[in-house]
Amino acid sequence: MRDFYYQNSYDIVAYTYKADLICPACILDALPDAWEVDKVEASDIETALHIIAEAQDVDYDNETTYDSGEFPKVVFRDQVEDGDVCGECFGKFEDSAYRTKPQPRVRGRHI
C-alpha cells in the first residue's frame, strides 16, 4: 500500500455530508436511501452514489446544483488535514482512498 503522503491529490478520501466528513466505507450508511443500492450490483462507492443520486433527481456530476446537506460531495486528498477523522467511524483518512468498494453490511452498518 502506498504511504499516505504519496497518495494522489485527486484521490477521493472522504465525502462532505450534512456538515461532516465521512469516509467512503461509511458514506452509504449515512444516506437514508442507501438500501436501494443493494438491489443493484454497484462496483464501487462512486457508482452506488450515482445510482442513489439519479433516484433522488440529484445531478451528482455537477456539485454546484445541490447542497452537501442534501447529498454528499467528494473531498479530495489535498482538501483534508492529517488529523481529520470520519464523522461516522472516527477512523483517520490515511487509508480511505483504498476503501472504495461497498462494504458488507449488517443492519445498515458496515462490518
Question: Can you give a write-up of this model?
Answer:
It is built from 2 helices and 5 strands. The strands form 2 sheets. It has a 3-stranded antiparallel beta sheet with strand order 2-1-3. Strands 4-5 form a two-stranded antiparallel sheet. With 111 residues, it is an alpha+beta fold. It starts with 11 loop residues before the first strand and ends with a strand. The chain has helices at 24-30, 45-55; strands spanning 12-17, 20-22, 73-76, 105-106, 109-110. Helix content is 16%, strand content 15%. A hairpin with a 2-residue loop joins strand 1 and strand 2 (20-22).
> Which spans have pLDDT < 50 for at least 5 consecutive residues?
100-111
Oligomer: single chain
Radius of gyration: 13 Å
- Shape, per Cα inertia axes: globular
Order of SSEs, N→C? EEHHEEE
Portion in beta strands = 15-25%
Binned, the helix content reads: 10-25%
End-to-end distance, in Å? 21 Å
What structural category characterises the helix and strand content?
alpha+beta
Cross-sheet strand order for the largest sheet: 2-1-3
Overall number of strands = 5
Provide the residue-averaged pLDDT.
Answer: 76
Individual helix count: 2
Describe the largest sheet. Answer: 3 strands, antiparallel
